[in-house]
């Protein structure tokens, strides 16, 4: 099946085309599925299943728990349990790390966390003020610095593998995201590739696999 986080086009614009070739069931928050169904985001024959945030559901061999994130449309992340008792969480499109997000990220074997923008690039870039303000707001996105601080906290709790995701094409680069994270970790004595693994997920190419 396919887990959908929210309705924004950069997350669902290829969904309908994909489903016409691979008619898989689609899971997500009720508001998101209603939007997709009403606006042609999925084929009419698509099987849609709403997930209740905070409640774990069985999807195939996986246990999947959706949790709400702070964004400007209804949006969720996912905490996924595998049959061999491993856990991963993906959390993107969140302007602030709420208690629900903190809980979902804790105790994971792999965390995929948004590292959307470099603050200097955003404030000096081409975006109009209202859009910059939206991105920086509690209903926007996480910066590299905010992501780095959370990764350090998770490493100190025992998590070792991380994927930096949802990097902005206009306000970030993979190198900047990694440099920010490595600088924060380095000040705490954490050595990447020894104490943890951190990689960026690229927008337009297949990223290296992360086993966990």
Automatic annotation (TrEMBL):
What Pfam family is a match for this entry? Lactamase_B_2
- SUPFAM superfamilies linked: Metallo-hydrolase/oxidoreductase
Per the database record, which ranges form the Metallo-beta-lactamase domain? 1-156
Its transmembrane ranges are none
Name recorded for this polypeptide: Metallo-beta-lactamase family protein
**Upper taxonomic lineage:** unclassified sequences, metagenomes, organismal metagenomes
């Amino acid at each position: 099946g396919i887990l959908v986080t929210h309705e924004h086009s950069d997350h669902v614009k290829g969904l309908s085309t994909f489903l016409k070739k691979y008619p898989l069931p689609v899971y997500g928050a009720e508001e998101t599925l209603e939007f997709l169904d009403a606006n042609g985001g999925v084929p009419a024959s698509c099987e849609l299943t709403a997930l209740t945030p905070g409640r774990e559901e069985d999807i195939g061999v996986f246990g999947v728990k959706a949790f709400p994130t702070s964004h400007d449309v209804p949006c969720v992340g996912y905490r996924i349990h595998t049959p061999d008792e491993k856990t991963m969480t993906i959390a993107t499109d969140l302007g602030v790390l709420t208690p629900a997000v903190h809980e979902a990220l804790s105790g994971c074997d792999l965390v995929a966390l948004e590292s959307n923008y470099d603050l200097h690039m955003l404030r000096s870039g081409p975006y109009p003020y209202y859009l910059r303000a939206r991105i920086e707001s509690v209903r926007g996105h996480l910066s590299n610095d905010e992501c780095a601080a959370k990764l350090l906290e998770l490493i100190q709790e025992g998590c070792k593998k991380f994927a930096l995701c949802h990097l902005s094409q206009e306000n970030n680069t993979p190198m900047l995201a990694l440099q920010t994270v490595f600088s924060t970790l380095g000040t705490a004595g954490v050595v990447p590739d020894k104490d943890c693994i951190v990689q960026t997920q690229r927008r337009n190419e297949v990223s290296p696999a992360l086993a966990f």
